[in-house]
């Protein structure tokens, strides 16, 4: 017992050290010396780095190329010296993006504090750092130039510019890389100047309004009557009272620079967020919903490319089709309330910023087509509702970040086309329960880490490419007495010369004579239905007498196939139920394939 406890403790400590951050603070008195001041071990272990003193472009190159795990960087107290083509007080071009020769991106970098002394930010300085989260990015008065794609692809909720005179910026300086623009807050007197200088961005000055709307349908009149001016000037709105679809339409259509909306103190008619309520509301960053909402209508938040802060209310029952499709800025965990019963088609399609695991609560009975398509940011397990009866087409297509075992619930009857296509992180055995009758095309294509596939007794149809590319599968167990209908490409990429195929007792002939199941060489009859794995194929013996191949133990009409070592079929004949003598050429190697096994014979 003591030995076990010591082992467990060691494993816990080992796991802790592997996952723990490694912090380093270093002061540079000589620019360009950062690489020499770090040990080889520090370069591959340091995650959090604080640098003080004087640095130059060479030190940025060190941080980009040599610090392989760098996640948090504090440069707030450094001064930047000139070096080569990089002037003083500039975050150098390509600081964390190497365009040549490999186009490497600093994807480990998540946080960065810039020095207050900088006057310019070079082209692609933080370009393509897709995991770098600035949140609110403040551009100080001292910054007069921002290069092309300087922050391209970074996670930025909003930009606050303190200087009333716009800095010179290059193309795509703040572009998200997802088709959504970035919201720019500037001093009130500078709005027109920024609009003229920074084309393609939404420019506004902050205007916060808190209002109570006693009568649903009158929100616009209430705001204007209270002296808050035009709806198009409001950037932050807190609303209490009563709302209906007309009020929501006013918010969506006429509040053209609205970034934050808080409706927690209000009641919406029918407790429903209407369909297309905030459809392609490209300025919205944060929404807080009423706690009484039960339904989110179709496309309610679709295309809200900057929306990153939204919590689903605990009262929610239904998530409509396309509800959050394209909301790629969501981060952290997706928490689906335990009250939700249905998740519509494409409900979270393209929400690739979510991380961690995904738990679909047991209240959910259906998962729509494309529901989580391309949500590849998840990096932990997937738990599907035990009440789910169907998994729609493309439901988890492209979610390659999931890992661990995939458990298909026992009530599921159909798995749609490309349902788990490309989910390459799943490992271990895949059990298809007895409730499933059909598996769609490419349903598990590319799931290359599965090691074993168990198919339930009700499975009647498995479409083409269903398990294409599942190269890790070394054993397939089928519980159905009648061979399921499959296509020649259903198991493409699985080595049929080594993968073991287990079938119910008394069915091997049916499987081996099937055009597509017959491609598997090693077939065994197993007591699958009773949950045992006792082989019953030992009745067949294959040997030679220096001139002929002898086959004993086959049943009448069983097929015997003899292949050359090159895989070309040499002979095919039906067993007569007695010892079979098959004349062959000498000095050759043959593969003899019966319904239960395959054996190499060397003459």
Instruction: Pick out the low-confidence regions.
Output: 1-19, 530-538
Average pLDDT over all residues: 89
Shape type: flat
Biggest sheet strand line-up: 19-21-22-23-25-27-28-30-32
Q: Tell me the major beta sheet.
A: 9 strands, parallel
Work out the number of β strands: 42
Beta-strand portion reads: 25-35%
In angstroms, what is the radius of gyration? Answer: 32 Å
Give the proportion of residues in helices.
10-25%
Provide a count of the helices.
8
Keywords for this entry:
603 residues; five-stranded parallel sheet; 42 strands
A few lines on this structure:
The protein has 603 residues and is of the alpha/beta class. It contains 8 helices and 42 strands.
Record the SSE blueprint:
Layout: H1 2-19, E1 23-28, H2 34-37, H3 40-45, E2 48-55, H4 57-65, E3 72-80, E4 90-91, E5 97-98, E6 104-105, E7 111-113, E8 120-121, E9 133-139, E10 145-146, E11 155-161, E12 168-169, E13 183-185, H5 191-197, E14 202-204, E15 208-213, H6 219-225, E16 236-243, H7 245-254, E17 260-262, E18 266-268, E19 272-273, E20 286-288, E21 295-296, E22 318-319, E23 342-343, E24 358-359, E25 366-367, E26 382-383, E27 390-391, E28 414-415, E29 428-432, E30 438-439, E31 450-455, E32 461-462, E33 475-478, E34 500-504, H8 508-512, E35 522-526, E36 541-544, E37 548-552, E38 559-564, E39 569-574, E40 580-583, E41 589-593, E42 598-602
Parallel strand pairs: 1-2, 2-3, 3-7, 4-8, 8-10, 9-11, 10-12, 11-13, 13-14, 15-16, 16-17, 16-18, 17-20, 19-21, 21-22, 22-23, 23-25, 24-26, 25-27, 27-28, 28-30, 29-31, 30-32, 31-33, 33-34, 34-35
Antiparallel strand pairs: 5-6, 36-37, 37-40, 38-39, 38-41, 41-42
């Amino acid at each position: 017992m003591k030995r076990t406890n010591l082992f467990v403790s060691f494993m816990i400590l080992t796991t802790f050290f592997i996952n723990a951050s490694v912090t380093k603070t270093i002061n540079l008195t000589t620019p360009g010396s950062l690489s020499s001041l770090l040990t080889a071990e520090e370069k591959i272990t340091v995650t959090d780095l604080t640098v003080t003193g004087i640095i130059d472009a060479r030190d940025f190159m060190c941080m980009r190329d040599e610090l392989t795990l760098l996640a948090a960087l504090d440069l707030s107290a450094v001064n930047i010296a000139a070096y080569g083509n990089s002037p003083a007080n500039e975050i150098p071009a390509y600081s964390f993006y190497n365009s040549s020769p490999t186009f490497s991106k600093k994807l480990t970098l998540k946080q960065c504090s810039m020095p207050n002394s900088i006057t310019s930010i070079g082209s692609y300085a933080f370009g393509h750092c897709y995991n770098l989260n600035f949140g609110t990015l403040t551009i100080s008065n001292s910054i007069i130039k921002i290069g092309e794609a300087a922050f391209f692809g970074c996670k930025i909720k909003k930009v606050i510019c303190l200087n009333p005179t716009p800095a010179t910026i290059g193309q795509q300086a703040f572009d998200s890389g997802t088709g959504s623009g970035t919201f720019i807050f500037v001093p009130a007197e500078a709005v027109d100047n920024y609009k003229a200088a920074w084309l393609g961005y939404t420019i506004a000055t902050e205007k916060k309004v808190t209002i109570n709307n006693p009568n649903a349908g009158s929100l616009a009149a209430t705001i204007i009557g209270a002296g808050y001016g035009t709806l198009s000037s409001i950037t932050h709105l807190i609303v209490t009272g009563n709302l209906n679809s007309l009020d929501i339409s006013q918010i969506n259509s006429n509040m053209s620079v609205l970034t934050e909306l808080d409706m927690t103190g209000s009641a919406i008619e029918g407790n429903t967020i209407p369909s297309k309520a905030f459809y392609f509301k490209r300025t919205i960053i944060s929404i807080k919903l009423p706690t009484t909402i039960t339904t989110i209508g179709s496309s309610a938040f679709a295309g809200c490319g900057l929306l990153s802060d939204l919590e689903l209310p605990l009262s929610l029952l239904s998530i409509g089709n396309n509800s959050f499709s394209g909301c790629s800025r969501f981060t952290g965990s997706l928490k689906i309330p335990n009250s939700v019963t249905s998740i519509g088609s494409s409900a979270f399609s393209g929400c690739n910023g979510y991380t961690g695991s995904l738990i679909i609560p047991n209240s959910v009975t259906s998962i729509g087509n494309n529901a989580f398509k391309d949500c590849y940011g998840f990096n932990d397990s997937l738990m599907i509702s035990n009440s789910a009866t169907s998994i729609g087409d493309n439901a988890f297509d492209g979610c390659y970040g999931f890992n661990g075992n995939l458990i298909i619930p026992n009530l599921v009857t159909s798995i749609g086309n490309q349902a788990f296509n490309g989910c390459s992180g799943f490992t271990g055995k895949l059990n298809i329960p007895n409730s499933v009758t059909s598996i769609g095309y490419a349903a598990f294509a590319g799931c290359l880490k599965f090691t074993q596939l168990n198919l339930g007794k009700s499975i009647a149809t498995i479409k083409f490419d269903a398990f294409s590319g599942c190269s890790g599968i070394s054993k397939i167990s089928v519980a159905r007495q009648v061979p399921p209908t499959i296509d020649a490409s259903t198991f493409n990429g699985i080595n049929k010369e080594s993968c073991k195929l287990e079938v119910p007792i008394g069915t091997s002939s049916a499987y081996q004579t099937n055009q597509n199941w017959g491609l598997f060489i090693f077939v065994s009859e197993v007591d699958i239905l009773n949950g045992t794995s006792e082989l019953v194929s030992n009745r067949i013996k294959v040997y030679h007498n220096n001139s002929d191949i002898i086959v004993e133990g086959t049943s009448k009409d069983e097929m015997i196939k003899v292949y050359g070592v090159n895989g070309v079929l040499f002979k095919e004949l039906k067993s007569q139920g007695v010892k079979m003598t098959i004349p062959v050429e000498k000095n050759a190697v043959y593969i003899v394939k019966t319904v239960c096994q395959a054996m190499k014979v060397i003459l």
